[in-house]
Write a structure and sequence with these properties.
Elements lengths: L4 H13 L5 H10 L10 H18 L2 H16 L2 H5 L12
Length: about 100
């Protein structure tokens, strides 16, 4: 039985975000990195901006940007502060901080 492509895309998106760090985890990492300059100093403001961006991609149905956003959050939480400061996770199309 052939599944409609939309269901397959939804499944892929769900699996891709299964291990996605939360915005709170990502923002905490950024704030804890003294060397990383972010315009959003507070955890709540950073978290809110991150969550709005994620919801926006969901509302648009843009699975590519949503997956890239999840990858960026994974990169931030998995990387060392010096690497983040050097731009290893930076994507000008996605970066909200």
């Amino acid at each position: 039985m052939r599944r409609p492509p939309i269901l397959l895309l939804a499944l892929v998106a769900a699996l891709a975000t299964a291990c996605e760090p939360t915005c709170k985890q990502t923002c905490k990492k950024l704030i804890d990195c003294d060397s990383v300059d972010t315009p959003r100093q507070g955890l709540n403001e950073c978290q809110a901006a991150c969550e709005v961006q994620g919801r926006l991609y969901d509302d648009w149905g843009d699975t590519q940007k949503r997956a890239a956003f999840a990858d960026m959050k994974r990169c931030i939480t998995d990387s060392q502060c010096d690497d983040i400061d050097a731009g290893v996770c930076y994507d000008e199309d996605l970066y909200v901080w």
